[in-house]
Amino acid sequence: MADGGLKTAEIVPDAANARVFRDALGRFATGVTVVTIQGPDGPMGFTANSFSSLSLDPALVLWSPAKASQRYPFFAAASHYAIHVLGQHQSDLPARFSRGGSGFDGLDWHRNSEGVPVLPGALARFDCAQHATHDGGDHLIIVGQVLRLALEEGEPLVFAKGRFGSFTG
Ligand SMILES: Cc1cc2nc3c(=O)[nH]c(=O)nc-3n(C[C@H](O)[C@H](O)[C@H](O)COP(=O)(O)O)c2cc1C
Questions:
Q1: How far does residue 47's CA lie from ligand 1's centre (Å)?
Q2: Residue 6 class from Cβ within 10 Å (0-12 exposed, 13-18 middle, 19+ buried)?
Q3: CATH number of the structural domain spanning residue 37
């Protein structure tokens, strides 16, 4: 057996060390998205870094809302939604669309062909129809069929270790 010298502690994720599990997951740097839907009382948004590409043909993407989220029922049920990949210039948006945020108040927005509220300025916007959902423990995996996309120039907003930053590579 190879002797690697100093051993790194290995941890089994459970309720007693949930913080460590979260910290480990947070080391995976991601972009930041805002997912939008038309809710029962108007536009709703949800800040999510669980967005991922899934399939090129057919064009599919996914994201995962927490089942415990107050807004979960609306996002799980939405037939159409838009996923906005945020740029550096949109660093005010994640807080708006997280718990207690001001949402669409005072923001410029319009509706796409399916009536979904969309925000200008995203580096990429994916207009989706719900394709499938899968159980994901305390989250729901929502797979979207990409109906159309829109691109704008800019630098991505990056999220890692609980902090927002920029890509300097
Ligand atoms: C950068 C960032 C990424 C997030 N990503 C997710 C996510 O992928 N899934 C999720 O359920 N919540 C995510 N959240 C938290 C949600 O935006 C939201 O605050 C939380 O689900 C509580 O929502 P509620 O007010 O509807 O209960 C993220 C928050 C931040 C700031």
A1: 5
A2: exposed
A3: 2.30.110.10
Measured in angstroms, how far is the CA atom of residue 11 from the centroid of ligand 1? 25
Report the residue among 28, 46, 92 best suited for mutation to probe ligand 1: largest number of ligand atoms under 8 A from its CB. 46
Place of tokens 């902090």: 163
Residues 133-142 pLDDT 10s: 999 999 999 9
Q: Pick the closest to residue 44 from 98, 87, 123, 122 (CA basis).
A: 98
**159 CB less than 6 Å from ligand 1?**
yes
**Mean pLDDT in consecutive groups of 10 residues from the start of the chain, 169 residues:** 67 90 97 98 98 98 98 98 98 98 97 98 98 98 98 98 93
Q: Does the residue 1 lie in any domain?
A: no
Question: How does DSSP classify residue 86?
Answer: P
Q: Is residue 95 part of a domain?
A: yes
